[in-house]
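G., the chain you wanted modeled:
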Amino acid sequence: MGPSDGEYIKVTNFGFSLPSDATPTAIKFSVVRKAFSLGGLIDNLVYTVKGGVIGGDNNANAGTWLDSDENLDYAPVGAGALWGRTWLYTDINASDFGIVISPHFASTNTAYMDYVSCTITYTTTAAGKLMMRKSTRYFRQSFCFLPLLRTAGGLILPDKQILAPQLTLAG
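Predicted structure as tokens:
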């Protein structure tokens, strides 16, 4: 099997309740992931979901997925801390806020993800002071995905493929 991109996993509905005077300053997603075997599996696309729309900066990690559980933070810094988008507290609080992750398979392998959390850093004016706070929500669900085979005749799904192309968290 040659190089291929996997389906994406879309994780939304983190259940945030930032206050109305909150101004998001950074968004960090933490993911526990692993490959069935070492080598041949890297991130393809890692984007935010805002208002149900996938976009912003691609913050895919260049490193190879390990064959043991790896806790990886997708936490851009500086000017990119908001993933190339402008955010309001209502965007973060919305049920359609989240992350999309798609692996790239350079060889035969299986990708597993077991856990996703999101931490929002924001400023707020409480009692007339500018304060910085963090709010974190967790999601725990195991899922795996295999590469898709693309041929001149179209798309072939491998046998026993498990896909969750749009995984929405329960409130």
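Confidence is low (pLDDT under 50) at residues 148-171.

Shout if anything looks off.
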